[in-house]
Design brief:
four-stranded antiparallel β-sheet; Methylamine Dehydrogenase, Chain H
């Protein structure tokens, strides 16, 4: 069997699902790679950053691939060129967060320089800068209806911004540890069910609560922290916390439209699939206990990909109530 070309030659820092057969990844080797995991081949490798590629993104409407780097730049790429089509300069430290609005007309970015920047995608011009002291940004996500942006940071808070006037509107209660990533449910709706079972009889109390649901993941070590927090955006309160990882949870994502499942990865080398309504572990996989996992994505409800500091992208499949490693390259 021929030896396959490795996707990255150094630690993988971020993965992003482009479509049903392709992922985008970025790493410490300063490249971003478009990989076809069905046919097991690299479709395109871009090199142009002077330092680690920290976050990657794909804009389906503008058909652009985006990379954010420790070299303080954001670069736009297209499939037909080895050179970036645009370079955005505005951050003073590593760029740690990027996301498009639903129309792909505006890009939001965040950095350890405490700045959130809104960019015009077409012109590359800065539309607005927001600077909040000690707000070292770790992640930012645009809501699926385009009305708000969620952002996590090293100040242990999760914040929200109104996309219409590009201003901060909410700070959720501060957590005990740094908040490392965030995600918003696909349909911005959530159905909560609560089951009660006193004595020998079973009683079901069903609460139909339509809320906008936000997830944030937490730093942690030695059995402390490392939780996933579920927030009700409309009521601005914590709904529940999920414990199961033994070290910092670096990434989490909702799996399905109903937000009934979410997937996470951690410095403990494990991927965990969670049952949201039951606040429990549905399935878990020890991908590599010696390697921190930096980022995880749901390609669909059955297939996932995660990147590790060992330079590998691991592909995971859900079979009934188990997670299985199907490929690693």
């Amino acid at each position: 069997m021929p030896v396959r070309e490795a996707i990255h030659s150094d630690g993988v820092l971020n993965v992003y699902s482009v479509d049903t057969s392709t992922i985008l990844s970025g790493g410490q080797d300063r490249t971003l790679v478009l990989y076809d995991f069905i046919n097991h081949r690299i479709r395109r490798r871009w090199a142009g950053h002077e330092h680690d590629v920290v976050k990657v993104l794909y804009g389906h409407i503008v058909n652009l691939f985006v990379s954010a780097s420790r070299d303080r730049t954001i670069q736009f790429w297209n499939i037909n060129s080895d050179l970036p089509v645009q370079k955005l300069l505005g951050h003073e430290l590593v760029v740690t967060a990027i996301d498009f609005n639903p129309e792909n007309s505006v890009l939001v970015s965040g950095s350890r320089d405490n700045k959130i920047i809104f960019w015009d995608t077409k012109t590359g011009q800065i539309l607005k800068k927001i600077m909040i002291g000690r707000n070292l940004i770790t992640d930012a996500k645009w809501s699926h209806d385009g009305t708000f942006i969620a952002q996590t940071g090293e100040d242990k808070e999760t914040k929200m911004y109104d996309s219409r006037n590009m201003t901060q509107v909410v700070s959720f209660p501060k957590k005990q540890y740094i908040q490392t990533s965030c995600d918003i449910s696909n349909d911005d709706r959530y159905l909560v069910s609560v089951a009660n079972e006193p004595s020998s009889s079973i009683y079901f109390q069903i609460l139909f609560l339509f809320v906008i649901l936000l997830m944030s993941t937490s730093n942690g070590f030695n059995g402390s922290g490392a939780e996933i927090s579920l927030w009700d955006i409309r009521q601005r309160k914590l709904i529940s916390e999920f414990y199961g990882h033994r070290a910092t949870v670096n990434s989490g994502q909702f799996v399905d439209q109903a937000a009934s499942m979410m997937i996470s990865c951690s410095n403990d080398g494990r991927a965990i699939l969670w049952n949201v309504q039951q606040n429990s572990i549905f399935a878990e996989l020890d991908v590599d206990s010696a390697t921190p996992l930096t980022s995880i994505i749901a390609m669909n409800t059955q297939n996932f990909a995660t990147g590790g500091l060992n330079g590998k992208v691991s592909f995971i499949q859900r079979l009934n109530r188990q997670l299985q490693l199907t490929d690693q390259i």
